[in-house]
Specification:
Length: 363
């Protein structure tokens, strides 16, 4: 039982990749609606375009409208690199948040769980365009979700944007690009600065491993480039790891080796090299730091002390948080309850702060 829980937590931790069958099961009584919005002639910042960009989404709860017909209770939840909106149906997240009296009680809120460009059931390279798919970035992904909300779902204002990992970074982009669109932001597990240092190095290593694999064939492979995929999964384990959890649950060499073998047997067949290459490359020009003062919504920003991707020793969060007009940064101390980068999905660790944020921004 403990070993199974560990496998679950590491899968959640791995760069937000949690759209795995065992994690994406909602309770039978939880009514999840799914749909697609198709954006016509979508223009990317690269100058490329798609005649039809499909954006998949899930919703829970019912939109409530004011006298003018405006939706007043919408909450947008944004996933991490390689994930999808399905990950927010996992028990460690959903069972702590969506029930009666819980912070995102779906009897009260209209919760929107979209799949970003290149992820889940939204348009992505593996649908057929392969390496000819437009080279999207985070600004494109945020612009697409803005279209999904306003034109697809009729939502012109959000009660809250909650984002994990890549979704955390998207939260900062949202706050700067559409500062009046939301009451509150809760970015989880990221930094609002250019991706540099070790964070950029490991991302570049993963992308290079895929591109330099002879089996990649410029993205037109018929068989997955195994070495590139192997390197990608190697780094995802480290990037999403939680040292205390791993030592506790893999206390012997044999246990660690077996876990690694099981991990690759399960994951290698599910990871598409082109999709993953695009997903990681989307972060290439992310840098909200010059415009943090533009964010007017109240911000509750949280990272964890055992996050490999955003190590607290850099002190970047403390420095940048001072520039937020109405923001608070909280570091969750490393403990036997934290899960490395994936602490962003274990709601028991931070749901109190989420409730406080919602209460403080109630109308």
């Amino acid at each position: 039982m403990k070993r199974d829980l560990f496998r679950t937590c590491l899968l959640v931790a791995t760069m937000g990749i949690a759209a795995v069958a065992g994690l994406a099961q909602e309770k039978p009584k939880r009514d999840v609606q799914e749909g697609d919005y198709v954006a016509k002639d979508f223009k990317f910042r690269s100058g490329e375009s798609l005649a039809e960009l499909k954006l998949h989404y899930r919703t829970l709860g019912t939109p409530k409208k004011d006298a003018q017909g405006r939706v007043t209770n919408a909450v947008l939840i944004l996933h991490g690199t390689g994930g999808s909106g399905a990950q927010f149906l996992s028990p460690v997240f959903a069972d702590e948040l969506y029930g009666a009296g819980q912070p995102l009680d779906i009897a009260k809120y209209y919760v929107i769980l979209p799949d970003g460009i290149g992820h889940g059931k939204s348009s992505k390279p593996s649908d057929g365009m392969h390496a000819h798919f437009p080279s999207y970035d985070y600004d494109d992904m945020v612009a697409a979700h803005h279209l999904l909300l306003t034109r697809g779902l009729g939502v012109e204002h959000l009660r809250l944007i909650f984002g994990t990992s890549m979704g955390c970074m998207h939260s900062f982009v949202w706050g700067e690009t559409y500062p009046e669109f939301m009451d509150a932001l809760m970015p989880m597990a990221c930094l609002p600065v250019q991706i540099a240092g070790r964070n950029r190095v490991w991302r570049k290593m993963v992308m290079d491993a895929i591109r330099e694999d002879s089996e990649w064939k410029g993205g037109e492979y018929t068989k997955a480039p195994q070495q590139g995929v192997r390197v990608a999964l190697d780094f995802l384990i480290i990037a999403g790891s939680a040292p205390i959890q791993m030592q506790k649950n893999l206390p012997t060499r044999d246990a660690a080796d077996k876990y690694l073998a099981d991990y690759f047997a399960q994951r290698a067949k599910d990871l598409d090299a082109n999709d993953f290459l695009y997903q990681v490359n989307a972060s290439r020009n992310y840098d909200p730091s010059p415009s943090l003062e533009k964010i007017t919504a109240k911000v509750m920003w949280m990272n964890s002390g055992d996050d490999f991707i955003n190590p607290p020793g850099l002190k970047i969060a403390e420095r940048e948080a001072k520039r937020l007009k109405n923001g608070t940064f909280v570091l969750i101390p490393e403990s036997e309850q934290t899960h490395g980068h994936g602490s962003h999905t274990w709601a028991v660790l931070w749901k109190k702060e989420l409730q406080e944020l919602l209460d403080s921004t109630a109308h």
